[in-house]
Amino acid sequence: MKFQLKKLSGLIAVALFALTATTTTARTFRSADVHAKDYPTNLAVKYMGDELSKATGGKDNIKVFGDSSLGSEKDTVEQVKIGALDLVRVNTSAFHGIVPESMIPAFPFLFRDLEHFRKTMYGPQGEKILAAFDKAGFVGLAFYESGARSMYAKKPIKSVADMKGLKVRVQPSDLWVSLISAMGASPAPMPFAEVYTGLKTGLIDAAENNYPSYEETKHFEAAPVFSETMHAMPPEVLVFSKKIWDTLTKEEQAAIRKAAKDSVPYYVKLWEAKEKDAKAAIIKGGAKIIPASDIDRKSFVEAEKPVWDKFATTPEMKALVQEVVNTK
After folding, report:
1. Superfamily of domain 149-232+287-326 in the CATH hierarchy
2. Which of 19, 116, 223, 297 is the most buried (most CB within 10 A)?
């Protein structure tokens, strides 16, 4: 308890210092990320910092802290909330319990393909979701795509029938638990760091993620069949502390927003290259890929329909989901 109180008092002290800093002096904003320093998200935020520095004549900049050096995604979101940290990049799942609208991009089979994702999430529908962060004490700046998530196991998964009875690792989110349950599988919430061992020992039968994560973690060694179910495309989100934001000038706020948006095309190029390299690496490592063309997508879509109704809980959310669906 003493340690927790000491930690909390330290965070509050940092927050008070940040809030009382004047906006007329040079500012170096701190950004947190759990990924390695050379991961596309960190490189994109560094690029954002460079653009911000140019726009403000060197007055404002961003320092990126990767490798979970400032804590887990949950920890850093809490720090941003109280103003102890300026901004953070996390997966949208970190906000599912805080900003209900953040669940929408993770709805199963919401996006027809990558083009549909980009047209909506980098367009007006994405802006509406980012705006929803404001009421929770955050300023939504930008989304970064993180590819399509697909299933991997020791056997091919070509239809929803192949999922029946499988124990599948999921993120600790009600949405993800429901998504896997709807497929007839047994969801197993588990820290990402434990997935490799879980697959090796048989504690779980399968997991799901994108190509870079599958390759970097060596999960292809324990579950060598990657089936392109492409069941969800949840993005990363970059958010700023509203407590800090409200101390900035309108000019600074505009410069930060523009720098964040300008970092998206830069990020996309990095991400596309990373996906391509990861796919080549797992094939070289002996993994087998079941292409999307061999997947019975219709069987999965039918099974997941109730999930949308369960989590689109307000008329506004339902309308926004329909906007995404109707976008051509």
Report:
1. Bacterial extracellular solute-binding protein, family 7 (3.40.190.170)
2. 223
